[in-house]
Amino acid sequence: MATSTRSSGMPANKAPRGSLINDPAARAIFFQILVLGGVLLLGWYLVSNVMENLARQNIATGFSFLDREASFAIGESMIAYSPANSYSQALLVGFLNTIKVAVLGIILATVLGTIIGIARLSSNFLVAKLASAYVEVIRNIPVLLQLFFWYAVIGESLPGPREALNPLPGVFLSNRGMRVPALGDDPIWVWVGVAFLVAVVAVWFVARWARKRQEATGQQFHTVLASIGILVALPLLAWLLGGAPTALDIPALQGFNFRGGTSVSPEFAALLLGLVVYTASFIAEIVRSGIRSVNWGQTEAASALGLHRGTVLRLVVLPQALRIIVPPTTSQYLNLTKNSSLAVAIGYPDLVSVANTTLNQTGQAIEAVSIMMAVYLTISLGISLFMNWYNKRIALVER
Q1: pLDDT of 94 above 90
Q2: Domain residues of the chain, as ranges?
Q3: Where are the alpha helices (DSSP H) in 242-364?
Q4: For position 1, what pLDDT does the model report?
């Protein structure tokens, strides 16, 4: 009588190991390596072909041109610049101008878009319809056409410097831009700015402490009043310790233009206004849909507790809606930043404008375009990283 393998205590024969080609994991790694090798080979071929063609036509390559004299002026600059500076300095000016437009545009578009989005949900018929008309009209007109429109309005509707409008003392509006008084040349203003930054950090720590205190004890702390006090007190203290200077640089008409003070050029104003108005129309729809996504029972429960409508929106609805609002809003921030490259069409010296001038003078198109691509990629990745961090921070934590 034959005995089974189990009854005799003999181990069962193991199934023979299959070859690597039948292993799904091994096949996946093999094909990934194959595709990566193909991509690298294609890249090597394209680069070597381009370099060979450039060498055949005696076209210089490399980034050594960045140290040469730029020899062209830039209308607006946040740092000291003259035509005698290098191309690298000129590109830095264009980069800072792009950052200025992007940061201000994101802040203003967020504020305007939030207001319009909430207005679309208003129980007031006129307010809701006006907000809806704004969204439907603005977002269906190409942004480039809107930039042309605002540039024409600002540049052609305002008078020349000699007939400039003077709505407030020291403020002048003309087709050369807006001139406003500036702070006098005193080193104390630097320390006032440092004090303000310190105050912002202090406000963040106070808000964090207040939140932990409320979670532990249930007692609320008036963070708004405390924050305003800190933001005002520290810069004011630095100003007083520095002698409390009050001198202002008042603009005055000299010849055919104003001198003194600080100015906002028509190009910058048109670019900023066009980008803010256009992007805000999309953010408004994102805010509206985010608020709509919050269960109506949340609003009813908060109203039953006697909370004011504005308080319900600020403390109950918006914190929950942010989970849906933040991801698509990130895309709008990226679009605004990239759309700022259209500034070249109205003469604002952003990165693209300066890089195009550099390209035309040096003939090194590949390097100039590579710099633009690298800068916009870095800015976009920075915005994405920050917004992803913020999105994780406001995410609901399950208990």
Answers
A1: yes
A2: 87-184+247-394
A3: 266-293, 296-304, 309-312, 318-339, 351-362
A4: 45
